[in-house]
Design a protein that fits this description.
heterodimer, A: mainly beta, Immunoglobulin-like, six-stranded mixed β-sheet, five-stranded antiparallel β-sheet, 57% strand, B: mainly beta, seven-stranded mixed β-sheet, four-stranded antiparallel β-sheet, 11 strands
């Protein structure tokens, strides 16, 4: 199956800092989503971005499908941004099965 | 608009028992997906139901089963519980992409 690698595994930020999270995948993808999992386990949909660039407030994402990677940018980080960020992809089979990366754990310190 | 709702929030069972987890999709969504998030194993695809039929299944033993009802809600049943079934079980729904996740049911097997 498709492999999804996220980097870095852990990230510690000072409040107000900017950061970039990366997601590499091993095959072509039909769909890609970024999620944020908060400390209570809620998995919140951040972006649906199989290609191109999107922005939502302080967050933005870019997917370059031809080069098999996606980036999530966090600007002016806040303590509420803490949690685990997951990239998930649907591979070329189009089987509606999302394969998740291992996640990036972000800790934002006040 | 109500999101994906899951019940119960927490469930404690003894090894060998059966567990039933429930999921109500977002209104208008016909597909329901189940994922397992076990410690150290990440998020893994379990099952996909669409229009009442099982459409895809992850690499899990047959004691993991489920169904989707005419109102598109879904049940996940886990028979003959084992200690390693302890995990957060997440349900998602969609009409197509993107998938929207519920808050999960945390199953503890003792």
């Amino acid at each position: 199956g498709i492999q999804v690698e996220q980097s870095p595994p852990d990230l510690i930020l000072q409040e107000g800092a900017n950061s970039t999270l990366r997601c590499n995948f091993s095959d072509s993808v039909n769909n890609l989503q970024w999620f944020h999992q908060n400390p209570w386990g809620q998995l919140i949909n951040l972006f649906y971005i199989p290609s191109g660039t999107k922005q939502n407030g302080r967050l933005s994402a870019t997917t370059v499908a031809t080069e098999r990677y996606s980036l999530l940018y966090i600007s002016s980080s806040q303590t509420t941004d803490s949690g685990v960020y997951f990239c998930a992809v649907e591979g070329p089979m189009g089987d509606y099965k999302l394969s998740f990366g291992a996640g990036t754990t972000v800790t934002v310190r006040a | 608009e109500a999101g994906v709702t899951q019940s119960p929030t927490h469930l404690i069972k003894t090894r060998g028992q059966q567990a039933t987890l429930r999921c109500s999709p977002i209104s208008g969504h016909t597909s329901v997906y189940w994922y397992q998030q076990a410690l150290g194993l990440g998020l893994q695809f379990l099952l996909w139901y669409d229009e009442g039929e099982e459409r895809n299944r992850g690499n899990f033993p047959p004691r993991f089963s489920g169904r989707q009802f005419p109102n598109y809600s879904s049940e996940l049943n886990v028979n003959a519980l084992e200690l390693e079934d302890s995990a957060l079980y997440l349900c998602a729904s969609s009409l197509s992409f993107p998938l929207h996740f519920g808050n999960g049911t945390r199953l503890t097997v003792t």
